[in-house]
Design goal:
The protein is mainly α and 121 residues long. The chain has helices spanning 24-34, 38-47, 54-65, 74-83, 87-101, and strands spanning 9-13, 16-20. It contains five helices and two strands; from the N terminus they run E-E-H-H-H-H-H. The protein has a two-stranded antiparallel sheet with strand order 1-2. Helix 1 packs antiparallel against helix 3, helix 3 (54-65) crosses helix 4 and helix 3 (54-65) packs across helix 5.
Length: 121
């Protein structure tokens, strides 16, 4: 079962339940793939919310799954999105998990790797 206080969220998908958690390792993996920092990627998602790019959402899903699901691939993450009910359903859950992973407070935005993720849910 997920623990929202720890930033862990359960996502039922088909006959399985996946655990989503954005950790430093997940963020680093995402940065390696997209070639930019986490906050730049999240800003891109926020600005494009009405015309979401499936690749970006799939990549975000993958980054949130890798901590608890060893060996999960991008294709697997796409299947999780489909089995969980589609883009809109998972984007809301991903937004909650992203927000939970970010430090809260007025000093949280200065290092490029932290900040407020409002607007991504």
């Amino acid at each position: 079962m997920g623990n929202k206080v720890m930033g862990q969220f359960d996502l039922p998908a088909g006959d399985k339940t996946y655990k989503i958690e954005f950790t430093p390792n997940g963020w680093c993996e995402l940065e390696d793939v997209v070639g930019c920092g986490t906050m730049e990627f999240l800003k891109r998602l926020e600005e494009a919310e009405e015309k979401l790019n499936f690749r970006d959402v799939r990549l975000l899903m993958w980054a949130g799954l890798i901590e608890h699901h060893d060996g999960i691939t991008l294709k697997d993450a796409g299947r999780v999105i489909k089995d969980a009910g589609g883009l809109e359903v998972v984007f809301q859950k991903l937004g909650e998990a992203v927000k939970a992973s970010m430090p809260q407070g007025k000093d949280s935005g200065g290092d490029g790797g932290s900040g407020n993720a409002e607007g991504t849910s």
